[in-house]
Amino acid sequence: ARNNVVKVVKSKAGDKVGLPCCHEIPTSESLHHHRVYWQKNTTVVVLAYVEGKKMPQDKQYENRTEIDTRNFTLWMSPVEILDNGSYQCIVQRLSSSLSGDSVVLCNEPVILFVTADFSEPNVSAEVSADSCELTEMVVRCSSHGGFPKPQISGALNNEPVAWNVSWVSESSLSPYNITGKLKLNVTKDSDFNFTCTVKYNGFTKSSSLLLSR
């Protein structure tokens, strides 16, 4: 039995990425005896060759995809967030007989997971109310332009704090902007160190702000 572990390829937006195919043709054979289809979500033609001729492809992949004519690796550059998804490599060998039958040599999915970097978090604080002993402050942390949906965590003098978080994204495959907000009552004559950390797909970005009252 074949193991059904789906291949996952990770990439960053803007990079070049190669998606492996499930079949390689020996040097003695020619691309002209094969059909190769790379498709996305089983409907969109990313790149296809039939008997060595390139077939029409979906517009979003024009001029940024190429195929290795031996092992059929699909190269994509530059990668975009919209490229996230499931791809399939289908290879058929064409029969040399007149009946024209073809044999499917392989048909396997590959998942492409594209990450986009968030900006360095911007931490700012402003006084919202002031009395003799206490100052009420609002601290904000924001970061933008990344993918996938991030998590945000904060610390005040190394003690964890819970941000009031809001996200903005135009669609499920658009960059995210994230903002965390925190209200604090602080006593005068004390120093505060705020740290804000944004996490996404195993990556983290952190920034700190030191305040003296």
UniProtKB/TrEMBL annotation:
Keywords: Cell membrane, Disulfide bond, Glycoprotein, Immunoglobulin domain, Membrane, Receptor, Signal, Transmembrane, Transmembrane helix
Subcellular location: Cell membrane
Recorded GO CC terms: external side of plasma membrane
Topology with respect to the bilayer: Single-pass type I membrane protein
Gene this protein is translated from: Cd80
This protein's record includes keyword Membrane: yes
Protein name in the entry: CD80 protein
InterPro entries: CD80_C2-set (IPR013162), Ig-like_dom (IPR007110), Ig-like_dom_sf (IPR036179), Ig-like_fold (IPR013783), Ig_V-set (IPR013106), T-cell_Activation_Regulation (IPR051713)
Domain Ig-like: 1-99, 121-212
GO biological process, one term: immune response
